[in-house]
Amino acid sequence: MTFTNPVIAGMHPDPSVCRVGDDYYLACSSFEYFPGVPVFHSRDLVHWRQIGNALDRPGQLVLPPATPSSGGVYAPTLRHHDGRFWLITTNVAPGGGSFIVTADDPAGPWSDPVEVPGIGIDPDLAWDSDGNCWCTYAEIGQIRLDPATGKTLDGPFRLWSGGPRAQAPEAPHLYRIGAYWYLLIAEGGTERGHAVSIARSTSPNGPFEPCPANPVLTHRGTNRPIQNTGHADLVQGPDDSWWMVLLGVRPGGGTPGWHVLGRETFLVPVTWVDGWPVPGDLEPSMTVPWPLSPPPPAEPRDDFDVPGLHPRWISVRSRPAASWSTTDRPGWLTLHARGPSLDQPGITFVGRRQQDLSCRVRTLADTTDGRGGLAIRLDECHHYALEAGDGLVRVTARIGSIRHTVTTRPIPAGPVRLRADIIAATTNWYPSQGPDELHLGIESADGDFLTLAQLDGRYLSTEVAGGFTGRVIGMFTTAGTVRFDWFDYEPLPDA
């Protein structure tokens, strides 16, 4: 059966997967966004449905205003052991650190965090046949851990750290498969030099023998449409064949190529040769040898008709209960301003990851009692916004240290339809061709679109802004109270 990579599109990097019977569960990094660590379920490894977030209570995840963009929650590992789900991750924020949360049901609720002091990022959990729990982490170190208390019982030990002089040995995952313990890592940095390498040992703490074919997967130095491949996790498919989930990006435009959706989750087959896992070619269109069960097409509109928010909705660093409601005006999402600008921490913002290279986003905003609208955000210094209020709608662009009002237009009283069409470039023959164009404007009730600004998408890309995240599109308020009747997200065919 044919499927399309990525299997989880948009900013869903550092995938960690586990199989429980016929079910698969996967968790990803979430960085400075709350709630943290999205959790997905699948029955076929291809179609994934978000069932929750592991860190969905303020007591589990504290991201102070001083948390930088691309700080926050890094690289979880999700495992199932002794009838319970275990997730270990690191909060790279002031006062943060590594910790474990557990759950009987991966949809939640998850426990309060148990701190694991003194370890690096990208922690992994693995249990041996004697019940010992081994925590392996970036650089590459390891401790024997009591996962119930977070206490170190032995170590730390230094393990194999990848190829000679390879930068950033990270993302370790330790597995017992057959007669060996396999240590899978990423190396080369999470940019174009990213790679997957592996070593094996008869003991969980080494010594480890490197695979002679390392790196076993990399797209460095190629013109493949998927780049930055690495940070992988192994899993067996429904037919017990072996597969690998990993992160990658889809650059667009000319040189150097700009990726705007962040790092996404891809799937690739694995075969075993002489006791070593060998990943196959990673392509945008691939096949699996088992039947697929695609879910019904996603509804493009969220009408905010239920008391809570779907787990796909995320906010920047926090979402205080007093800042939002779907019951103040039933059927509307009400946002109360906390900060005056998207340029600063503390903004009231509710958004979702951009998951398609081309898409259309619309919302109906009532700004009678405030000012706010629709924003496409990468971080505080890189975002475009349609802001309505005080009888005007304005398009603003923040690019690095420059903040510019692109255009301003009067609007009549009453709710206004705000719209953004994101159109991916279909050619990259010209070196400075950008990855996409963003058309921002207002829409009439009968669907006529008045474009107020047409902006280059490269300035909302990781190659320009830096960091580890991708675009998030959503609703915000900078003054008073703004209400949103609905929000549409619609994939568009590439032009």
UniProtKB/TrEMBL annotation:
Belongs to the glycosyl hydrolase 43 family. One of its GO terms (molecular function) is hydrolase activity. PANTHER family: BETA-XYLOSIDASE (PTHR42812), BETA-XYLOSIDASE-RELATED (PTHR42812:SF12). It comes from the Bacteria. This is Glycoside hydrolase family 43 protein. Keywords: Glycosidase, Hydrolase. It comes from Actinoplanes subglobosus. It holds the Pfam family GH43_C2. Gene3D superfamilies: 2.60.120.200, Glycosyl hydrolase domain, family 43 (2.115.10.20). The keyword Acetylation does not apply. Signal peptide: none annotated.
